[in-house]
Amino acid sequence: MFENYKSPAPDVILELMQQFRADPRPEKIDLGIGVYKTGDGKTPVMQAVKDAERQYIEQEQTKAYLGLAGDADFVDRIRTLVLDDAVSPDCVRGIQTVGGGAAVRLLADMLAANDKCGRIWIPSPTWINHVPISKAAGLEVVTYTYFDPATGQIDFDGMLDDLGKAEANDIVLLHGCCHNPTGADLTLEQWRATAALIAERGLLPFVDIAYQGFGDGLEEDAAGVRLLAGTVPEMVISTSCSKNFGVYRDRVGTAMIIGDPGAGIDKAREVLLSAGRVNYSFPPNHGAATISLLLSDPTLTSAWKSELDEMRQRILGNREALAQTLRSATNSDRFDFVRGHKGMFSLLGLSAEQITQLRNEAAVFMPPDGRMNIAAINEADLDVIGKGIAAVIR
Ligand code: LMR
């Protein structure tokens, strides 16, 4: 009966990964999937994480099941990292998940299981998996204007206009920082206006924060989500440790629910846990236990923060170098906006045809939407990238 299947809709990021691996050209440049790379194209394990892992393995006593919610200490430490004291810990319920992707899925499942829940408003564009996950969970998806490709900036008026049409109990998905794929983040003023609109219309914010520490810094990158958490009565948050702890394949994330302790957040957490149980049962332990140990040790925490800051500085340096390269290669200021973007990505505003041409002619690999992984740029490749882009926009 297996012949009966139709191929699932392709995931362009995963397709690109395969195309890159299969391409025989030795000079090929991978600016696709969202993985941080050093100047020599590697994604090493962070030293503080390696040290925490060693300690954890030494002290690990058992590999027996921990429980559906995973490591409670880990979840609490991530709550502090993301929310600090924006809301009282009494008002937050969280669980460990299989990376940020599963956090999004379990929260979507939890929301879809609520009869009161309306549609989910998702920014256009957004992470490639937000819409498929929301639909798979059974939510009705509506998109809202977010980005103006002509300017490389947020279309904030368009965003407020669209969200002004949302109805009470609709969900609004927001990227906590380092918007994927555009790189264009809300200013604090814009977060404030968004929070006011959400509160006024009785919407439920769903913040996906997967790149904390890659934009302006750990605290600065959480300012928007903290402001929102302090303004609205209820919200949900998905977090990922893939990027800021570099534990991609260990699959470490959390899902959090914020609300009044008397207003059903424990029930909501039960639904979240049961969504995990029917999907994968228990989350994996190693990555979360390692991060919990790291964050409980002030020396390791400070070492991790310095490494993260170095990564952030490298991205900023890459942004500056890319902006300069593109300015001289194209003889225009068209791409200057990459300087002001945050985090790993920028959406360059190139068409799918131009991206294909770039891949064919210059062996530069990017997803068809024109999202560039700035964190993967190697200085030695700048010239090829600049000339390649100049050639395709000519
Ligand atoms: C990305 O957007 O490239 C990453 O978040 C990896 C993924 O799962 O798509």
Secondary structure elements and pairings:
Layout: H1 12-22, E1 29-30, H2 47-59, H3 72-83, E2 92-97, H4 99-112, E3 120-124, H5 130-136, E4 141-145, E5 147-148, E6 153-154, H6 156-163, E7 171-175, H7 188-201, E8 204-209, H8 218-221, H9 223-231, E9 235-240, E10 253-258, H10 265-279, H11 286-296, H12 298-330, E11 345-347, H13 352-362, E12 364-365, E13 371-373, H14 382-393
Parallel strand pairs: 1-12, 3-4, 3-7, 7-8, 8-9
Antiparallel strand pairs: 2-10, 5-6, 9-10, 11-13
The structure holds (2S)-2-hydroxybutanedioic acid.
Using the coordinates above, name the CATH class of the largest domain: Alpha Beta
Largest sheet: 7 strands, mixed
Taken as a percent bin, the fraction of beta residues is: 5-15%
Q: What is the CA-atom radius of gyration, in angstroms? A: 21 Å
Note the gap between the termini: 51 Å
Going across the major beta sheet, what is the strand order? 2-10-9-8-7-3-4
What name does the CATH topology of the largest domain carry? Aspartate Aminotransferase, domain 2
Unreliable segments of 5+ consecutive residues:
none
Q: Number of DSSP strands?
A: 13
Question: Which percent range fits the helix content?
Answer: 40-55%
Cofactors and ligands present? Answer: (2S)-2-hydroxybutanedioic acid
CATH superfamily of the largest domain: Type I PLP-dependent aspartate aminotransferase-like (Major domain)
**Tally of distinct domains:** 2
**Tally of contiguous helical segments:** 14
- Named at the architecture level, the CATH assignment of the largest domain is 3-Layer(aba) Sandwich
Question: What is the chain-wise order of helices and strands?
Answer: HEHHEHEHEEEHEHEHHEEHHHEHEEH
By secondary-structure content and strand pairing, the structural class works out as alpha/beta
Mean pLDDT: 96
The backbone outline, from C-alpha atoms, is globular
